[in-house]
């Protein structure tokens, strides 16, 4: 990374966090300033006090020095305590607002990005890196160190700079102390950079381990995987993997600690030598009467504080450089664009629901894959028509729907709505045209009514009507709290666990409630019992009304009532037409599938 990049990343995170919580950042700067200045007050006034004592100053003067020392330390401590208290409170606030910002980003991403495994992995990695202390937290701690060390260095130089002007100390000694000081600084910078590198390597392995152990924990706590873990006795295998990661982490920790001790040892040793040398020189000057006892205390203390400041500055710069590489990943995730929002055309609102949809030579590959999921798909249908999409598993039916609903854009070819490429429409408006029940639909831990309406406030009568149309009417009557009944027990003790079939009916009701001109049902009866399935089939036209309905199923019997049937095979539409027309093709795939299934219905 170039110096410019480092500066730009540092500036960006500073601006971002400052916007999230000005007070918090302000408090960190103030507290670091106070903490840096705090040791200099007693050093300065203690030197004065000692000199005053030796010089036999009046007790009034001595008491004034003592008073100023105690008073100013007290005042600084109060400021420090106050800033720390505010920080504790604001830290929570900052964490929440940053997490919220990340969630907003995720929600604003194109679906293609959400489903993209590399984007997901990046998101998980960032999450773990934040938990391990990188990104914002590392920035805040380095900001603190930068302020502290800068103030400390300036104060040390201001207070002890006069050391160079003491003519009575032989030049050799003065330069020896300066040389020793510089050498200690160099060693300290070198040692801290090495030890920091070891620590960073350890943290890096922590990130990997955290990613893994999180996955493990999710398996263990998620009741969906709980059944399989128990039935197939996977505890030992999962535990062994977990212990292995844990063991590696422990040994990495020991290695890193050993390295840190070895790297910092020379600087510590030199620092002590410097201290001894400085004392000897300064005491020599004091004995010859050129330096006061108070000055010795002041110079030695400042020398050590200067060393501390310089090593902290080096550490802060080192950590900033490392953290910037993490922040770069963090920002590259935040900067993932959403290409879906390019269009601006309004979707024509037609009372007659007359929409024309056309797939024109559409091919599609999922991100990061080589194989085409759809190849040269050509299809036309009118709103109001009932289209059935059939084919074996993996033939591309769901992908076809994902493209139609603009969850993805085609790799080649185009999809037209009323003759206009759908990418030219305003994305939100275009999405409003569709109601879809995907196979892997999701219900939320909200009330039943909110699940159907997808809103906090809703038209209860309409929600009930949609639930009844979807075959959930009787079950609703049995629910004591009606539409207020909470689904699942995440947030409500008396929440209801619905069965797969019931969930599918609620999802269908949700699609009906949206009342969009297009209704797409992807295997809508897969989880229903035969009676409920028959009910949906027989009332299908009544349920979808005059909407354009696309019905995906591998159960061909359920597609007979559709105006048009498109048969998918290995990502291509191999035939399309009415049931009668397709069945008449004696060597066609449709007839083959139909006959294969028909024998079970005989
Ligand atoms: P169907 O709905 O007919 O069962 P899909 O449309 O789900 O088939 O899948 C078509 C092909 O695309 C399959 O080969 C499947 O493995 C692949 N596929 C589906 N979803 C993804 C995805 N998110 N990433 C990569 N490949 C996918």
CATH class of the domain at 364-598: Alpha Beta
Bound molecules: adenosine-5'-diphosphate
CATH topology category name of the domain at 364-598: Rossmann fold
Label the CATH architecture of the domain at 364-598: 3-Layer(aba) Sandwich
Strand line-up of the largest beta sheet: 6-7-8-3-9-10
* Percent of residues in helices: 55-70%
End-to-end C-alpha gap: 70 Å
Shape: elongated
Report the sheet with the most strands, covering strand number, pairing sense and barrel closure: 6 strands, mixed
Could you state the CATH homologous superfamily of the domain at 364-598?
P-loop containing nucleotide triphosphate hydrolases
Q: What oligomeric state best describes the polypeptide chains here?
A: single chain
